[in-house]
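User: My advisor asked me to double-check a structure prediction for Peptidyl-prolyl cis-trans isomerase before group meeting. I don't want to rely on an old file, so could you generate it fresh from this sequence?
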Amino acid sequence: MKALLKALAAALLLTFVLAGTGLAADPENTLYLDLKDGRVVIEMRPDLAPQHVARIKELVRIKFYDGIVFHRVIDGFMAQTGDPTGTGRGGSGKNLPAEFSDAPFKRGTVGMARAQSPDSADSQFFICFAPASYLDGKYTVWGQVTSGMEFVDHIKRGYGGNGMVSNPDKIIRMRVAADVTE
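Assistant: Sure, here is a fresh prediction for Peptidyl-prolyl cis-trans isomerase from the sequence you gave:
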């Protein structure tokens, strides 16, 4: 029992140390989302959405998200990206089955966008600016911003009748922390 408590204390200490350095606690399940104003760190949640996390990592590793615009950004709600066409109607071409959970949509929660069908999520995702409890249990939660939310807050707002932001901000690059050597 004493050894277990010691191990838990060491793990907790490591978590606090890593949080202060910007290093990922679990590099294989951490994303670095680079925006014009800085780096956003997203801790992925394979415990909640293993298929979504696996697909996001697959897309990130082929640099699918690099240069993609935030096509729908609603003040007080969320910033949405992940459509290579920039229209809100595109994706990677592979739908995922819903992985709904009890995890709440709060500030910094990362969820999958989808059409009316629960099993229509593809590559589009959104980051909540504020709590959105009306999404709880209806959309897949796959991550949480752990640092850099101030950079998400600076993403240009807007979406028009055609679903596009005028001169939208883009993802500069997105990487799995385990793959970053810099």
